[in-house]
């Protein structure tokens, strides 16, 4: 029984490290300066959501413990969102309502990005990202190219590597268009 507790603790540590790597990637300055994501609370949520969607997609079809890792990683994301709301001063009675909105937004984005990522459809993904990440009808072509490259790269990473070293996201600056942020 004691060994089981240590294993759970090791898993918790691994999930926390994995989530931190994803969150750090979502804050890469190139996403904001190069790809034009708004450097606002909403823009940071959009970036973190996109990176979480990409990381969770990379776990699909991988051997165990991939399913458990995906569940634990999703839990870590929502715990972070809950803590962030509380840090911003949202009252205890309002947090559950806000968390429902956060969950709805996150899962809506995951659904909106899934089919275009599956089909490697840059145009459809650019439209979805434009609406969600930039709040505009203008397609986010550079961000879509970045997301497609990240998705393709993450698919080939073994679960062991993902847990040991974390996901490797491309450099956002490599996808920026000269003089344009697609917004």
Automatic annotation (TrEMBL):
Pfam families linked to this entry: Ubiq_cyt_C_chap (PF03981)
Domain Ubiquinol-cytochrome c chaperone: 35-169
Coiled-coil blocks: none
Source organism, top-level taxon: Bacteria
Classification via InterPro entries: Ubiq_cyt_c_chap, Ubiqinol_cyt_c_chaperone_CPB3, Ubq_cyt-c_CBP3-rel
Family per similarity comment: Belongs to the CBP3 family. Belongs to the UPF0174 family.
Stated name of the protein: Ubiquinol-cytochrome c chaperone
Protein species of origin: Microvirga aerophila
